[in-house]
Amino acid sequence: MSKVSGYGVCFSFVAFLILVALLGCAAAETPTPQTSPSPSPTVAKSPTPSPSPYAPPSTITITLWTTEAFTPSPDTPTGEVMEGIYRGFREAHPDIAVQFVPKRPYGKGGILDFLLTASAVAPQTLPDLVTIDLSQVEFLLREEILQPWDGLIPQEVADDLLPRIRQAGSKEGQLVAFPFQVDIEHLVYNPSLIDSPPRTWDELRSQETTYAFPAGGEEGAVNDSFLIQYLALGGSLVDEEGNPDLDGAVLTEVLEFYRDGYDTGYISPSVLALETLDDSWALFKEGAVAMANVSSQHLLLEGTGLAYAPLPTKNGARATMARCWAFMLLTPDPRRQEAAAEFVKWLLAPENLTAWAQVSGHLPPSRSALRLSIEDTAYRLFVRRQMEGAYFRPPSEEIATVLQQAVVDVLSGNATPKEATDQVMQTLH
Questions:
Q1: In contact, 121 and 95? CB cutoff 8 Å
Q2: How far is CA 116 from CA 71, 296, 326, 340, in A?
Q3: Among the residues of 127-241, which ranges form H helices?
Q4: Measuring CA to CA, which residue among 283, 271, 231 is closest to residue 253?
Q5: How would you classify the pairing of strands 170-171 and 391-392?
Q6: pTM for the whole thing?
Q7: Positive or negative: CA dihedral 409, 413, 417, 418
Q8: d(CA 253, CA 268)
Q9: What is the block-wise mean pLDDT of the chain (429 residues), using blocks of 10 residues?
């Protein structure tokens, strides 16, 4: 049985009399009317009047490991919105508090690194709740520390998720990761230089324009832009047991596309210097290229009125990669699970999720919040179609690193596409 924090239950008789006297005095006084803080118009309102600043002490405090951007703070736009959302939650749930512990999103000292270390040497220090990149869920499943959301989040809330996004957070029929934000990759182009955006590689070759995407690798790992092309051709990455399972013929085909475009000039010569979508977005904004791979976040925050389209693929198949962050539950204590679920439900309320999406530029994964957060109907329908068929990045760092070396070797002229493919297959098998 879980232990509940609170005040002690044993009082002396004298203390009891003092307490009664104090209550009597308080009742005799005329209370001063209080004014509740005005909530943000885009944040869900509390269903009850605010008890602040005289809210009763919390009976439970849950710990959330998350990123700096997700932490309530008056110093940043995202922090201000989270502060408003959390204030509304405390007003509606005065018996539950959340301790936000900010950590790096990736790498050494990041959320996953801390979770894996703590689970191995000090499991009692693990948080109750965590936000993490969905591609990292497999690492946590191996540690057997995740608790399913089934039965804790109302079915209608789970059903509001776009099916593809919900599926990505489910393992063996259970929802183990509850998504709250998504970013997808798509094309942005200059309509004064391009009448119609290319849908296929052949159409891309026929246009006398330049195309940019990140090919320099993200911290040594191959970019999503490459994986999208590979997966769109039916290539596989891992088998059912998580072992490398690449298709050499498909891999060679994508590398040949890279080499051909690089040699003939329709792929920008600077792609090896572009490590992230931020880099290709900056190149496009400078006017150095006619089209580029960018994130949906770029358009939502900075790209009003720009022309966009799906990424060109070999046969025109619609393909993209979704980067998704989700809530994952770690505490096995039923009472703490219920408290954590109350906070997640509050954040996932359409008004709150919309407020977060609009200030952060991330796409909400639920139908209801998506309708509220993007006023541009055409773009809203576009990103929804993209999300409904998106791929999700696999967790294998080894594969991503080996593939990036192949991209560098081919674009640098150190290997032919076939030679680079043979080296990949040899390394991974």
A1: no
A2: 22, 31, 17, 21
A3: 137-143, 155-159, 163-168, 201-206, 224-232
A4: 231
A5: unpaired
A6: 0.84
A7: negative
A8: 19
A9: 37 36 38 35 39 53 96 96 97 97 93 94 95 93 93 95 95 94 98 95 94 96 97 92 92 98 96 98 97 97 92 96 97 97 97 97 97 96 96 89 98 98 95
Q: Give the CA-trace dihedral at 310, 312, 317, 319, to 10 degrees.
A: -50
In a domain, residue 90? The reply is yes
Answer positive or negative: Cα dihedral of 183, 101, 118, 331. Answer: negative
CB within 8 A of 369, min separation 6: which ones? 350, 353, 354, 357
Query: Domain range spanning residue 235?
Result: 183-320+394-428
Tell me the C-alpha distance between 410 and 30, whole Å. 80
Looking at the domain assignment, is residue 197 inside a domain? yes
Please state, in angstroms and as integers, the Cα–Cα distance from residue 1 to each residue in 4, 108, 129, 256, 333, following that order: 9, 36, 20, 61, 8
Q: How far apart are CA 219 and CA 374, in angstroms?
A: 32
Token pair, residue 159, equals 């059903």
Domain of 64, CATH number, reads 3.40.190.10
β-pair partners for 101:
65
What are the two backbone dihedrals, phi and then psi, of residue 267, each rounded to the nearest 5 degrees? Answer: -100, 130
Burial of 186 (C-beta count, 10 Å sphere; 0-12/13-18/19+)? buried
Count, residues in the chain? 429
Angle between helices 334-348 and 350-360 (to 10 degrees): 70
SS3 326: strand
- Which of 233, 254, 255, 236 minimizes the C-alpha distance to 245? 236
Are 256 and 400 in the same domain?
Answer: yes
Do 332 and 194 fall within a single domain? no
